[in-house]
Amino acid sequence: MAGTTEHVAAVTDADFAQRVLASGRPVLVEFTADWCPPCRMMAPVLAELAAERRGELDVVALDVDTNPQVQGRYGVLSMPTLMLFRDGEPIWTAVGARAKRRLGQELTEALARMA
User: Fold this and answer.
1) Is residue 1's pLDDT more than 60?
2) I want to staple 47 with a disulfide (CB 3.0 to 4.6 A). Which of 5, 55, 63, 96 is the partner?
3) pTM of the full structure
4) pLDDT digit string (tens) for 67-89?
5) Measured between alpha carbons, how far is 85 from 11 in angstroms, rounded to an integer?
């Protein structure tokens, strides 16, 4: 699946609630698909970010083609969509690929607003 690496785990409809909503720390979810070129561009960015922020937040990828329930629940229509969850709620959303520096700044700002 696009987006999964050693630092970016795959989540599914079946384990989304446990691994994302019930997580004790923030979780960045990439809604992705194998057919999505910008999603493939984001894979190394998310892997680096996940490695750098290990312990601060988790980064996971959800394949929308095989996991339509979560995609539908959050109204995700475009890939990649990035959604940051904290305490079971989405606190920040962005659509489209972005540079690592920009994504890092956006996540830092989103987390600071919710602190």
Assistant:
1) no
2) 5
3) 0.94
4) 999 999 999 999 999 999 999 99
5) 14
